[in-house]
Amino acid sequence: MVLLCAFANAQEQKKWKGKFEQLDQFLPTPNEYRTGSGEPGTKYWQQRADYTIDAEIEEPTNTLKGKETITYYNNSPETLKYLWLQLDQNINKKGNEDFGNYYGPVRDSLPTLHMQYITRTIEFEGGYSIQSVTDKTNKSLPITINNTMMRIDLPVAIKTGESYTFNIAWSYPITDRSLFLLSREGYEHFPEDKNNVYLIAHWFPRMCQFDDYEGWQNKQFQRLGEFALEFGNYKINITVPADHIVASTGALLNAKEVLSAKEFERLEKAKASFDKPSLVVTEEEARAKEKIKSTAKKTWRFQADNVRDVAFASSRKFIWDVQAVKLPTNTVLAMSFYPKEGLPVWSEESTKAVKNALEIYSKYTFDYPYPVAISVNTSNIGMEFPMISFNGGRPRNGQMSDNAKAGMIGTIVHEVGHNYFPMIVSSDERQWMWMDEGLNTFLQTRTEMERYPAFHHTIPKDIVPYMKGDKSVMRPVMNTSDNERLNAFGANYYEKPTVALTLLRETIIGKDLFDKAFKEYANRWMYKHPRPADFFRMMEEATAVDLDWFWRGWFFTTDNVDVSVEDVKWFKLKTQQATIENKTKNVKAGDLSAKASDKVNTDFSQGPLPFTMLNTPEQAYGEFRSRIDDNVVRQKLEGKNIYQVKFKNNGGLVTPLVIEWTYKDGTKETENIPAEIWRTNENEVSKVFIKEKEVASIAFDPKGELADVDDNNNTFPKKATESKFDQFKKNN
């Protein structure tokens, strides 16, 4: 009995090693928190954290100091004895990984900036100074700091349904962004006028996410893997030099206090400027402030509700424009803040790009729900936060190439788009980077196709160089970003999921059905924390398409699409009937055709292979009493061209078959064969096609929509290959 069970188990394992195996054993079991249909369950829960923050930029020392009060709500079914917070600024301590090895190893003529990245030659004392952590009675709380994470041990555990309020006072030196590879925040210095643009992000100790799937998400911040955060309401008070302009997450509460009378009047008028951007702060006014450098201070007050983070930018160099955007259910103020170095391109394109992103993303998901959407100009970065993004792209001497401008606009669209993924549909970026970068790049592509059709946008062919790369160092999409090579990061987490979703929409599911399902996913998980399984299950549940083979191949493996057209047989039915008198002759002819069909052809020069069809023998019908008319079947095939095409899966990734037929009269036809054709043999399949006209050529994936990595084996007649002697003659 034991032997039989072991044998059965071995057979079962062997049976389920196929590429069409269901994903059930790879995905978490559906439960009352997350259902099998990919939506929040009846007992779904998530935590909440509200913040009141007072912060000040000390410009002479480039220091940010602050204090915050956090009220944490335990909506989980668990009792919490301690809390975990993120101390992201600690990544800037000298001992932490800065990805400088991307520029290594050391070599002759190495630029000094690259050596700075590798060795931190110019030292910088980064990281938090935590002055105090206290409860609401100002009694000190015990803390433990582990690199970028801080644990607070509670005097009394927080039970389900309870909340806890505590305070933190802190400060840190703001980083010079030019000295840190992949720095998402800090200041940018302008030596010509001796001013800074401050980009303040990851700036206050923030609650880690605690959920039903993982508990505390306290995986250390290593700069690439971004954030898992809880939603909450924020009150933010930001003190800066009096001549600074502040752009922040949230609604500005005291505009009349911090703006001049003229600026305030312009801002109020701009709220109705639906046709084009309207200036609140002009270039001339910004230039004047650059020279004065006020030492007085002002406090800007913002309120942000139901957001998972807050960021802000501050500078006296900012020019500020605003345009109102009317969505079906909301009116949003699209804003841009930029120094004079961004002119003229930023005044022409930035707010327009914000508007385009809001309109197209809202079309495919849900109407943007927040009051403002902001684009801030900086250098060498694109980074997103709720309601605000920091975007690179800057002209040189007022000029920008078309490609550079397209890159700048694409960056703005992409970073504004992140308001949807992950700022509202709030996935865990530390764990599954593709869930925000991939989905967002997909919608960025839709925006560019509809509003910037002249731009190059991500298409399946773009991923081919990466997909045909070295698999020994390649990672599946279902991996954490910190484990990916920096030079493959964009291809794996941005482009590959975008290509996969494009393939789903354009080739596998269909545009209308895909768009409905994608929109349903976005709306189900607004202000919630979806996981990969929720997305996979949701897209199948809303489309009635079994996609387990697709998720497995594109997201769980490093396989690629490489299908070759191995052989094509061309047949034509012989016209003589298979009677008793000529039956022997026909069988012999059939034998000859069978032998000829064993030969692998390279073209159609040998003409069609003749074949005969015998009358159906009685035993073929089994117990059925009805009979087909054999002659009618023959008549329907008379004169037809029958092609038997053999396809080989060289890359391992199962795929639909998109086939283009070119006929001898010059006309073309395209057929789409679903990927299920590979179900019983994932390595090689043959399919018979009946055509009225004679075929001149056959091509697999003619437009590159399947991302096939080798188009040299995609056609029949087969492409001629040069001999080594021919190659030698060409090269010599």
Feature tags:
Zincin-like, metallopeptidase activity, Peptidase_M4/M1_CTD_sf, Peptidase_M1_dom, seven-stranded mixed beta sheet, Immunoglobulin-like, six-stranded mixed beta sheet, Peptidase M1 membrane alanine aminopeptidase domain-containing protein, disordered C terminus, alpha+beta
What does this structure look like?
There is one protein chain. This protein is α+β, with helices and mostly antiparallel strands and 732 residues long. It folds into four domains: 18-44 and 428-558, Orthogonal Bundle (Neutral Protease, domain 2); 45-230, Immunoglobulin-like; 245-300 and 308-426, Zincin-like; 563-731, no CATH class. Helices cover 26% and strands 27% of the residues. The chain is built from 16 helices and 31 strands. Strands 4-7-2-1-13-17-15 form a seven-stranded mixed sheet. Strands 16-19-20-21-23-22 form a six-stranded mixed sheet, with helices on both faces. A four-stranded antiparallel sheet has the order 5-6-3-10, with no helix packed on it. β24 (563-573), α14 and β25 (609-611) form a beta-alpha-beta unit. α7 (402-417) packs across α8 (434-451). The chain is elongated, with a radius of gyration of 32 Å. The relative contact order is 0.09. Mean pLDDT is 92; it is low at 1-16, 578-594 and 722-730. Residues 719-732 have a biased composition (Basic and acidic residues). InterPro entries: Peptidase_M1_dom, Peptidase_M4/M1_CTD_sf. Residues 398-554 form the Peptidase M1 membrane alanine aminopeptidase domain.
